[in-house]
Design brief:
single chain; eleven-stranded mixed beta sheet; 11 strands
Length: about 450
């Protein structure tokens, strides 16, 4: 398909999918301009691919709002490194995708511009915070998409929507141009309809970037060789991820995937990650603390619209702008983060959370050092839940990330792929690997994917 044809078809699909509310910013004129650029460029590894961008990645041709009123209409003077690399690889940048405001949420119900609908059931959520990106890929609007992961914000919506989501090792992809949320956690991550699609996207954006001091001095990732089987691989099943009350559909899907791993020749063994039970409370101390510091820059002076208070009263300007510009979940996390960093409480909360984070990392290190190559777990404790079901109870919402936030705290690569459906709703299984070992994880996921029917019902 020519670039011009791809641009027209992508525009048609974006218009037809408007009811999902998954795309915040796009225009046919920009798509046509993208096609002209691609026609004048040499073919690349992503030629013929359309990509949606989560709206916390800055671009020079679309607004970047982070789905927040406080950045409404903001257009960046520079572009994220990951976006530049996509364009250089021949991808058609299609749209900016809806998200939970400033990536704070697990359902994409916290967008200032309305919630995203699940592409299979409009009464349910697509997950979050990268729900718009996941929904666009699941609905076939774009081939792939970029999201961001701070505590599972790509893997969880990938599981809910029935697509593949890959989080790389921390530092594998440049964060330059990603609006900061939790700086020790944030990872630009990828969605695809298949593992190969998501992995090729990740390869294109990976590699060292002098503009981001946290990127590793590693060459870009390359696609691993295709494996016909998984002989010689040891896959661990952490018992903490398979509780007795695990949703029966999720358990059935994971049992089906574990059986496939065994058929492919992998050795499957039980392992333990004993500090997993502390991951959610640890994450929801570290995460708000970093968010409170990063979001201090949105003060009504430098970005977006401002609410003017009494003349010369800067404090009133800050309070009015942030009070109106930030939604409830963002204000909640700023308040929590400010509290856990405050004098007299920092040692009691933040320092203790960082100590527990180190214990979680040691759990993973011990398992991998004992000869385990990969870990397999459920991605989420349930399939997609109904819109509004958890919105009034933040703790229940946060628990939707219980199986995905440990890898984020440890900075490890992790991947979610569909392992079946329960009553028509997708169920995801998760693979996690040792630091920088994306190649083993991706190769195993491609083999597992070939052995599974992702739309088969897993529970009678």
């Amino acid at each position: 398909m020519s670039a011009a044809s791809l641009a027209r078809e992508t525009g048609r699909r974006l218009a037809a999918s408007a009811s999902l509310n998954a795309a915040l910013h796009w225009s046919q004129a920009l798509l046509d301009r993208e096609a002209e650029r691609l026609d004048q460029a040499l073919p690349g590894s992503l030629s013929g691919t359309s990509v949606a961008l989560k709206d916390n990645l800055v671009t020079i041709d679309h607004p970047t709002t982070c789905a927040s009123r406080i950045l409404e209409g903001y257009v960046s003077p520079f572009e994220a490194t990951a976006v530049q690399r996509l364009r250089a690889a021949g991808a058609l940048v299609a749209a900016k995708a809806n998200m939970d405001e400033f990536a704070m949420g697990s359902s994409t119900e916290h967008s200032a511009f309305g919630r995203v609908l699940h592409p299979l059931d409009p009464d349910r959520v697509p997950g979050g915070s990268s729900g718009g990106s996941a929904a666009l890929v699941a609905a076939g609007v774009t081939t792939t998409a970029l999201g961001s992961e701070t505590g599972g914000s790509v893997r969880q919506p990938a599981s809910f929507c029935g697509v593949v989501g890959i989080k790389p090792s921390y530092g594998r992809v440049s964060r330059f141009g990603l609006v900061a949320f939790g700086s020790s956690l944030d990872c630009i991550s990828t969605f695809g309809r298949s593992t190969s699609d998501a992995a090729q996207l990740l390869c294109a954006i990976s590699g060292h970037d002098p503009l981001d001091a946290t990127t590793r001095a590693d060459p870009p990732l390359a696609m691993p060789p295709v494996r016909q089987d998984l002989r010689g691989l040891v896959v661990g099943l952490p018992r903490e991820y398979f509780p007795a009350d695990l949703h029966p559909g999720v358990r059935a899907g994971c049992d089906r995937a574990i059986a496939a791993l065994k058929r492919l020749g992998a050795e499957v063994r039980d392992v333990s990650l004993p500090h997993t039970r502390f991951a959610v409370p640890t994450y929801y101390i570290v995460n708000p603390a970093e968010a409170a510091a990063n979001l201090a820059r949105f003060d009504g002076v430098r970005f977006g619209p401002r609410q003017v208070g009494p003349e010369g009263d800067v404090r009133a300007l800050y309070q009015a702008t942030r009070g109106v510009g930030f939604g409830a979940e963002v204000r909640r996390r700023i308040l929590v983060g400010t509290f856990v960093l405050s004098a007299g409480y920092s040692d009691q909360y933040y320092s203790r959370a960082q100590a527990v984070r180190r214990l979680i990392i040691r759990d993973f290190d011990a398992v991998f050092e004992a000869g385990v190559d990969l870990l397999f777990t459920p991605t989420t404790p349930t399939p997609a839940f109904r819109a509004g079901e958890k919105i009034a109870d933040p703790v229940q919402m946060y628990l939707a990330d219980i199986f995905v936030c440990p890898a984020s705290l440890a900075g490890l690569p992790a991947l979610s792929l569909p392992v079946g459906r329960d009553l028509g709703l997708p169920v995801g299984g998760q693979l996690m690997a040792a630091d920088r070992d994306e190649a083993t994880m991706i190769a195993a996921a491609i083999a597992l994917e070939s052995a599974l029917d992702p739309i088969a019902e897993v529970r009678a």
